[in-house]
Amino acid sequence: MSRAVSLPDGGRLVIRPIEPEDRLALVGAFERLSDESRYRRFFGPVAQLTERQLDYLTEVDHRDHEALIAFADPEDERDAVAVARFVRTEGDVAEPAIAVVDEWQGRGLASVLLDALVERAREEGIGYFAAPVLANNTAAIAALGRLGRTTVTPHGREVELLIALPAEEGATPPLRYLLRAVAAGTVRPAVTLLQRMAAGLRPARPMAARNAIVVAAPTSPEAALPIRLAGDLARASGAEVHVVGVQRLLLETSEHLQERLHECADELRGHGVPVTTELRRGDLAAALLDAAVAEQARLIVVDGRSAERLGSAWNHVAHHAPCDVLVARGERKPG
User: Fold this and answer.
1) What mean pLDDT comes out for the span 153-169?
2) Fewer beta carbons below 10 Å: N end or C end of the chain?
3) CATH fold of the domain at 212-328
């Protein structure tokens, strides 16, 4: 069901639940996002949306995964300018996300969408929105805690903000504060470009290294160079390969990543390489660094062919790794 909404500056839009037929409108909106907006929205540099990702983003069940799409022209539902969505993570808890194309930012559209998203979440039995943010913004996080029913749970370099949804219409003060604070940069999401550059996030170097190589599961067959190289090095040195699948909550499912991890493990084991696998969520670089510390790895292999992209993972890993880093470049044939 669509409805017309007004912005503080007098602008008018139409908001409705997203449908599979909105694929082209979603692609159009994505192409209007700047690199920085894409990074904030999708936890990493994303050049384009794959068909499988578009399936996930548009074929939602409107219960555990809801998405509201906003159109600038009530008569033309091809001109999408924003999307707000929540994904239930457990019971009555969901993680929210809002993306607004750059030319519509700063007009109050995100706040309007947040109100609508909270209303839909309440209708589906969601009682809390969870938001992981960096732990070093202590003043802003403390202010959130004073604004209302907000639980702050530390998780090492991150804290999770669990914000209770209101029984009445609209968003709570903590949610509005969080939205403004993230936009202003006073509260930084746990998985943004700024996390990569923040001081004090370098993992401690392990006391002793195991003969283990950490590598990310490829996002596509074309991105399999690092894992093939890790396999070649492991065969030559007798090392174990630890493959990390990194789930970006709003782009892919854990089931899809588990399938990819199994495929990678089967291929490596077929060449006589011992393999372990792990599924993590969030930022690719942070996941590889944390896995290297946990595994006491001697080496991380990363894909260096995205060097020109905003926030390339290899650059951050190379500067903050607790072990040696091999940057895979160019073409390499299997075997």
Assistant:
1) 71
2) N
3) Rossmann fold (3.40.50)
